[in-house]
Amino acid sequence: MSNEKQTQEAGLLEIMAEAFPGYRDFKLSSVTPSVMGDQDRILVSFLIVCNEEAAEDFRKEEEIYADVKVHVQDSANAEGLDLHMTMIFAFPSFNLEFYLTIPGENGEQQKYLAEKLGKVDKLVVWLVDQEKNFINVLQMNWDYSKHKEAFELVLR
Questions:
Q1: Could you give the number of structural domains in the chain?
Q2: Which residues of 97-119 are buried (b: 16+ CB within 10 A; e: fewer)?
Q3: pLDDT at 6
Q4: Cβ(113)–Cβ(36) below 8 Å
Q5: For residue 69, which of 86, 89, 129, 147 is within the disulfide window of CB 3.0 to 4.6 Å?
């Protein structure tokens, strides 16, 4: 790896560690959200801990299409609504999906994330392998209006 690439990666790792303190303890296949910034500039990020196979796919593919699907459903433990987000990564011949659920009992977390997602048009997705080594960081377009109906249910 070139010195320039090492320096760039070190800078990215610093930002990732700031956005996701304690990320080394995150579970395999987990998706963890993070919000950074102030009212003028908000950054909404997600950290995905990939298994070995997914990590290899992300390392070797250059073109990856990313999308997010959002839905809510009654909470399994009858407290409000569970907020579900599916991160979908389309490769040339297959898709990978990762899931985030914020349970109904965490209504304040749901509202906070929904409010912040309403203020951005890009999302940042950080990818690490199961040993928590940096794989890549992706930026994806985000259209809150496509998911507004679901978010309005948790914002009530």
A1: 1
A2: ebebebbbebbeebbebbebbbe
A3: 75
A4: no
A5: 86
